[in-house]
C-alpha cells in the first residue's frame, strides 16, 4: 500500500474569474471546492488508477471537520489526526488570464504530533511506499527528515515532493523518487536552466546527493525522468484546453508510482506520470481515470 502524508492539507477553493484584477471586487463565474494538499491529491489519483492507498497528516478546527467529510465522499482511507490549535487552511486558486494561488498558514504542529503520526504509520498493514509532500508547517522545520529517521527501520520506499532545504535534508535517505518542478530545480542550485541537457545535468546532481529517480516536471513543456539506471527519458508536453493546473505535479507522482508498479518499467512510469499530470491540468480538480487513460495514448517519450 502507498500511504501519503500531508502535514498541512487545505480545502482548495478553485474559482474562475473572467478578468482578475487586484485592488477591486472580483466576482467569480465558476467555483468548486476540493480536499486538497499535495499528498491527498496523490492519493486521489492513485485511487483513480486502482492503486491501494491511504491518506494521513493533520487537521484542525471546523474546517478540519469539513475536510474530513469531503474525504469521506472521496472514499479514501483516512488516517488524519487532529491537533487542537488553529484550523485547516483554505487555499484559493484563481483561474483567469493567468493562475493565481493564495495558500493559507494552517495549524502549528509540534514534534510530539509527528511522533503520533509515525506511530500511526507504523500500524499500517502492507505499507511499501511513503509519499511525503507539501509545505512544512511552522514548529516542525525538518519534519520530513525527522519522519524518515523515525521510520528508518521500516522497509518502505520514500517519495518526496518538497522544496528547498526540506528536500536536501531528505536526500541521505535515498528517496525512491523526487519530483522537483523546473523552478524548484533552478532555486535549489541558484541557476537558470535553458536546455533539456541542463535539466538532466542538475537532476544527476540530485542523484549524486542521494536520490534514486528524479522526475523534473516542466508544466506545458512536459517532464524529464532521470532513472536510477542513469537513463534520461523525456515526455513531451501535450497541447489541450487547460482548466486549472493545481495538483498536476501531484498527479504525476501518482501516475509514476502506478505506472512503475506492475512491471517496474520506467518508461511506463513516465508515460502514466505525464498522462496523469496533463489530465489534471485539463480538469477542474484532480484527474479521472478515463481522461488519464485517453491521454496515455498521446504521450511521446524519447531518450535524450
Ligand atoms: N499547461 C499544461 N499543459 C499541458 N500539460 C501540463 C500543463 N501543466 C502541467 N502539465 C502536465 O503536468 C505535469 C506536472 O505539472 P507541473 O510541472 O506544473 O507540476 P507542479 O509545478 O509540481 O504543479 P503543482 O504544484 O500545481 O502540482 C507536467 O510535467 C505536464 O506533463
Ligand atoms: O502550500 P503547499 O503545501 O506547498 O501546497 C498546497 C497546495 O497548493 O498544493 C496542492 C497542489 O499541488 C494544492 O492542492 C494545495 O492547495
Automatic annotation (TrEMBL):
<dbReference type="InterPro" id="IPR022463">
    <property type="entry name" value="1-PFruKinase"/>
</dbReference>
<keyword id="KW-0067">ATP-binding</keyword>
<keyword id="KW-0423">Lactose metabolism</keyword>
<keyword id="KW-0808">Transferase</keyword>
<comment type="function">
    <text>Catalyzes the ATP-dependent phosphorylation of fructose-l-phosphate to fructose-l,6-bisphosphate.</text>
</comment>
<keyword id="KW-0547">Nucleotide-binding</keyword>
<comment type="pathway">
    <text>Carbohydrate metabolism; D-tagatose 6-phosphate degradation; D-glyceraldehyde 3-phosphate and glycerone phosphate from D-tagatose 6-phosphate: step 1/2.</text>
</comment>
<dbReference type="InterPro" id="IPR029056">
    <property type="entry name" value="Ribokinase-like"/>
</dbReference>
<comment type="similarity">
    <text>Belongs to the carbohydrate kinase pfkB family.</text>
</comment>
<feature type="domain" description="Carbohydrate kinase PfkB">
    <location>
        <begin position="11"/>
        <end position="288"/>
    </location>
</feature>
<comment type="similarity">
    <text>Belongs to the carbohydrate kinase PfkB family. LacC subfamily.</text>
</comment>
<dbReference type="InterPro" id="IPR017583">
    <property type="entry name" value="Tagatose/fructose_Pkinase"/>
</dbReference>
<keyword id="KW-0418">Kinase</keyword>
<protein>
    <recommendedName>
        <fullName>Tagatose-6-phosphate kinase</fullName>
        <ecNumber>2.7.1.144</ecNumber>
    </recommendedName>
</protein>
<dbReference type="GO" id="GO:0008662">
    <property type="term" value="F:1-phosphofructokinase activity"/>
</dbReference>
<dbReference type="InterPro" id="IPR002173">
    <property type="entry name" value="Carboh/pur_kinase_PfkB_CS"/>
</dbReference>
<dbReference type="InterPro" id="IPR011611">
    <property type="entry name" value="PfkB_dom"/>
</dbReference>
<dbReference type="Pfam" id="PF00294">
    <property type="entry name" value="PfkB"/>
</dbReference>
Amino acid at each position: 500500500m502507498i500511504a501519503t502524508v500531508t502535514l498541512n492539507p487545505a480545502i482548495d477553493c478553485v474559482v474562475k474569474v473572467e478578468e482578475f484584477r487586484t485592488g477591486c471586487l472580483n466576482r467569480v463565474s465558476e467555483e468548486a471546492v476540493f480536499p486538497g494538499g499535495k499528498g491527498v491529491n496523490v492519493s486521489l489519483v492513485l485511487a483513480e488508477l486502482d492503486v491501494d492507498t491511504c491518506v494521513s497528516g493533520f487537521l484542525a478546527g471546523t474546517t478540519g471537520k469539513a475536510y474530513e467529510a469531503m474525504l469521506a465522499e472521496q472514499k479514501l482511507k483516512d488516517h488524519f489526526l487532529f491537533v487542537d490549535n488553529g484550523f485547516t487552511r483554505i487555499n484559493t486558486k484563481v483561474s483567469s488570464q493567468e493562475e493565481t494561488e493564495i495558500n493559507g498558514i494552517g495549524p502549528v504542529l509540534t514534534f510530539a504530533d509527528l511522533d503520533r503520526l509515525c506511530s500511526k504509520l507504523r500500524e499500517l498493514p502492507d505499507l511499501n511506499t511513503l509519499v511525503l509532500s507539501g509545505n512544512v508547517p511552522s514548529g516542525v522545520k525538518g519534519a520530513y527528515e525527522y519522519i524518515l529517521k523515525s521510520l528508518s527501520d521500516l522497509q518502505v520506499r520514500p517519495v518526496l515532493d518538497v522544496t528547498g532545504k526540506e528536500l536536501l535534508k531528505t536526500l541521505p535517505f535515498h528517496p525512491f523518487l523526487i519530483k522537483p518542478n523546473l523552478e524548484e530545480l533552478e532555486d535549489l542550485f541558484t541557476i537558470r536552466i535553458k536546455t533539456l541537457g541542463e535539466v538532466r545535468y542538475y537532476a544527476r546532481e540530485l542523484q549524486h546527493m542521494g536520490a534514486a529517480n528524479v522526475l523534473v516536471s516542466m508544466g506545458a513543456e512536459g517532464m524529464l525522468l532521470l532513472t536510477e539506471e542513469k537513463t534520461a527519458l523525456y515526455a513531451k508536453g501535450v497541447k489541450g484546453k487547460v482548466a486549472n493546473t493545481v495538483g498536476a505535479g501531484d498527479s504525476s507522482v501518482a501516475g509514476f508510482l502506478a505506472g512503475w508498479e506492475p512491471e517496474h518499467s520506467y518508461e511506463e512510469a513516465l508515460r502514466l506520470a505525464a498522462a496523469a499530470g496533463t489530465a489534471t491540468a485539463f480538469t477542474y480538480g484532480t484527474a479521472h481515470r478515463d481522461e488519464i487513460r485517453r491521454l496515455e495514448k498521446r504521450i511521446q517519450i524519447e531518450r535524450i
